[in-house]
TrEMBL record:
The chain crosses the membrane at residues 23-42, 54-76, 96-127, 139-162, 168-187, 225-243. The lineage of its organism: Bacteria, Bacillati, Actinomycetota, Actinomycetes, Kitasatosporales. This is ABC transporter permease. It comes from Streptacidiphilus fuscans. It comes from the Bacteria. Keywords: Membrane, Transmembrane, Transmembrane helix.
Length: 248
């Protein structure tokens, strides 16, 4: 892959993304939703076993906005027909996918970082006696939460290229994310609950937020994030393969 071509493709993708209707409002919404939900959870907590994880609980809501941003970056082009212009300007399909992935990842990482930092600072203020979250586990939870949002975005990007329809892509990703936590509350078998928490992209990925009781987790923090990375990788491979086959 030519670095110069990739750089030009990234600049073009950034131009398209930042001129997308409502893009800046969506980024602001990601921060507001994440911080607000985390603050509301902290404010209503009666007992706190893991302050950092509680403060970062808004990530489960903020990820929905990240999904929308990724979906719009693809469905908007297919809906307007601009995808043909994009593929004409950058004939290598892998470069198009890589450029979109790079721009979306950088954008969500930057905005997600602001949301995570705001959540931790507000959580510190709301949780009486909570530390300033500067210890190793808390920093890992913070960095992992940003990576979690980026991986969810990449998962969405891959599925969006695979299905090409915004509504279907959004519904598929959100169902995939929230289905496993729902199933763990429905099933009664402890072993099955544990397995669902290990393979589900959301419960496995969010294990990275835990700072206490790690030995009792169904899956380790970084291993769980690796499970989400695997889901995202498979989605990108599928989306890339279909992009080459259908839009050749």
């Amino acid at each position: 892959m030519n670095a110069v071509v990739l750089g030009r493709a990234c600049r073009a993708e950034w131009t398209k993304l930042r001129t997308e209707t409502g893009f800046l409002w969506l980024l602001l919404g990601l921060v507001v939703v994440t911080v607000a939900v985390g603050a509301a959870t902290c404010d209503g907590a009666r007992s706190v076993a893991d302050p950092a994880r509680l403060a970062l609980s808004g990530v489960t809501a903020g990820q929905a906005v990240a999904v929308i941003v990724a979906v719009l970056s693809v469905s908007g082009e297919y809906g307007s027909g601009m995808i043909q212009l994009t593929l004409s300007g950058v004939p290598t399909r892998g470069t198009v996918l890589a450029a979109k992935a790079a721009v979306l990842s950088a954008t969500v990482a930057a905005v997600g970082g602001v949301a995570v930092l705001g959540s931790l600072l507000l959580g510190h203020l709301l949780l009486t006696g909570a530390p300033l979250f500067t210890d190793g586990p808390s920093l890992r939870a913070a960095a992992g939460s940003v990576l979690y949002l980026v991986l969810v975005t990449l998962l969405t990007l891959g599925i969006s290229f695979a299905v090409r329809d915004g509504g279907v892509a959004s519904g598929t990703v959100l169902a995939l994310l929230y289905l496993f936590p729902l199933l763990t509350h429905v099933v009664t078998d402890p072993w099955l609950q544990r397995q669902l928490a290990r393979i589900g992209p959301m419960p496995a990925g969010l294990a990275v937020q835990a700072t206490t009781g790690l030995d009792r987790l169904p899956i380790g923090p970084w291993t769980g994030l690796g499970v989400l990375a695997l889901w995202a990788g498979v989605a990108l491979l599928l989306g890339g393969a279909l992009l080459r086959r259908r839009d050749a």
